UniProtKB/TrEMBL annotation:
The keyword Hydrolase applies. GO terms for molecular function: O-acetyl-ADP-ribose deacetylase activity. Gene3D superfamilies: Leucine Aminopeptidase, subunit E, domain 1. PANTHER family: GANGLIOSIDE INDUCED DIFFERENTIATION ASSOCIATED PROTEIN 2-RELATED, MACRO DOMAIN-CONTAINING PROTEIN. The keyword Hydrolase applies. SUPFAM superfamilies: Macro domain-like (SSF52949). Keywords: Hydrolase. Residues 1-170 form the Macro domain. This is O-acetyl-ADP-ribose deacetylase.
Amino acid sequence: MKTRIKVLCADITTLEVDAVVNAANTRLLGGGGVDGAIHRAAGPELLEECRRLGGCPTGEAKITGGYHLPANHVIHTVGPVWKGGRSGEADLLECCYRRSLEVAAERGLTSVAFPSISTGAYRFPVEKAAGIAVRTIGDFLSDHPRMEVILCCFSESDRDVYRNALERWEKQE
Ligand code: ADP
């Protein structure tokens, strides 16, 4: 498993993978943060395709083309807004990771890069989010031996948090 989850500090719009995951909002019409960066890099064709999807509920995932991105596809998922932790936020974040990977697997995609879903504008605590991400991805990969996942952080401090979470998860596996 070790070699199939990688933690990087990078701009997700530069990654050459089968799919990058977008931390979108329920309207799927673009926004700030990583969503804005992905739409800017992919070009207006991405927004056009997104308009036809009719939005996406929190915890779900929908796939589009990658257009001008080096990635072939974008998987749009909607993370939960952190409201203190008693509103099902952890389960919904787990759903985001699992549903995104299921959508990728249905298409036969084998390399997927995730941003740190919900930990920006949606304020989910990053330590907690990292634990959920590595556990959900790790469980999924044990049933999907051809898949590889990148956890693409946008700061060195987030990268360290995800690396620590990954190490802890690997030790207990
Ligand atoms: P959310 O609304 O789900 O919290 P944000 O886009 O606000 O989503 O933040 C999610 C994470 O994405 C944050 O850690 C943010 O720093 C990071 N991020 C922003 N731009 C990029 C990018 N170009 N590549 C990778 N990660 C990014």
